[in-house]
Amino acid sequence: MTGRFDVDGLLERFFDGNTAAAARLISIVENDSENSQKVLDAVFPKVRGAYKIGFTGPPGAGKSTLVSRLARIFRQEGRAIGVIAVDPTSPFSGGALLGDRIRMQKLTEDPEIFVRSLATRGSLGGISRCTNDVADLLDAFGKDLILVETVGVGQSELEIAEKAHTVVVVLVPESGDSIQAMKAGLMEIGDIFVMNKSDHPDAELAARDLEDTLRLKDIPEDGWRPPVLLTSALEGAGLETLEEKIKAHYDYLERNGILDEKRRRVLRSRIWEALLDRVEERLAMDKEIAELIDRRMEDVLEKKIAP
Hints:
The protein is an alpha/beta fold. It has 12 helices and 7 strands. The protein has 3 domains: 45 residues, no CATH class; 209 residues, P-loop containing nucleotide triphosphate hydrolases (Rossmann fold); 51 residues.
């Protein structure tokens, strides 16, 4: 049981920098317990505006390895890092299935890196519904850079564009990912494209094909043109260049006043998402609506009306 005084105590320890308290509060928020709103209201005034970088792309592209390597590089510059790794949901426990937190366990040896694995829990956007809430907690906990890795579900990866300031699309050459990326709409949300596994014989050709495709995008003369980078997450090749491009994109957003607008857009998206969640919850609990659906089901079954 997490009572009022328990939550108050956790919040006190959280603001004192206690990692265990931070982990417990994230669990409260993730599980949507009766205390989650209290936690979020207490934490939000302390949110400073950490920079969020989203990593998306198909499963098996090496996103986890890439995020782990980049986290270490950013730490060398003295940055405090939060990592949110979203995994598929276990149909039995409701928890994260792949356990990115296990794969990234070495990162947690550094007290300035906080890694949390979240389950999608039915969300179709490759990310958990509470991703931004958890990011707020990490922000208030002192993390100034938050790396968000999506689950990698192909055509439903686009929600990350509403939650991250910079979106890195990670592809690999051997599976025709550039074509799949076009189909999935990833071309529209990517700020930086990474062709991972650069030691593959087709990597350079795949990168050139991707560049040719991106040239077709209608980008203003002073706009950001997404670069295509070759990396090998396993060997660490090309990661310094990726870090430089991430910083360059941040500078571009800040210099042109886009960063503040992105933050406003993210907040607006979160408000709408919360509102729709509440509406859906109330509709699902409304007996009159349930009875109405049951009555009209016969008409649908008899093909008198469409669902």
